[in-house]
Amino acid sequence: MRALSAIGFVISVIGLLLVCYNQFAIIPFLTDLNSNADIKDNEFTQALRFNYENQLFFLSMLSIIIGVFSVLFCSIVYLKKRTRMTLIGTILGVFVAVMGIIHSWY
Questions:
Q1: Which one of 72, 74, 82, 104 is separated from 64 by 20 to 30 angstroms, measured CA to CA?
Q2: How far is the first Cα of the chain from the last one, in angstroms, to the nearest whole number?
Q3: Please, what sign has the CA dihedral across residues 76, 95, 8, 60?
């Protein structure tokens, strides 16, 4: 049981790092790329925009999957053993899944 809770906690922390990367690295660059009037619209910027939109969508879907697995692993263990690590892992998993859903709507 302890190994399963540790796996769920590590998965939730990895998901949190993925969501933070998505929030602070990809979304600001994509927003700046879409809203900046000084950037010429040519093949390079279209390909760059397409690449970042695909990366945003892929990381959002990956964070939803990671969040759901983290919630499953940690909540199953939390029902049997009420430890802080499983509670934190469950809360982080829910946060990661919700942020993945929000990012996928961007």
A1: 82
A2: 38
A3: positive
9-47 confidence digits (pLDDT tens): 899 999 999 999 999 999 888 888 888 767 777 888 888
**Do 101 and 23 contact (CB within 8 A), yes or no?**
no
Over residues 43-97, the pLDDT tens digits come to: 888 888 899 999 999 999 999 999 999 988 888 888 888 888 888 888 999 999 9
3-state secondary structure of 37: coil
* Residue 82 φ then ψ, to 5°: -90, 85
Four-CA torsion 93, 98, 102, 104, nearest 10 degrees: 60
The structure tokens listed for 47 are 């390909």
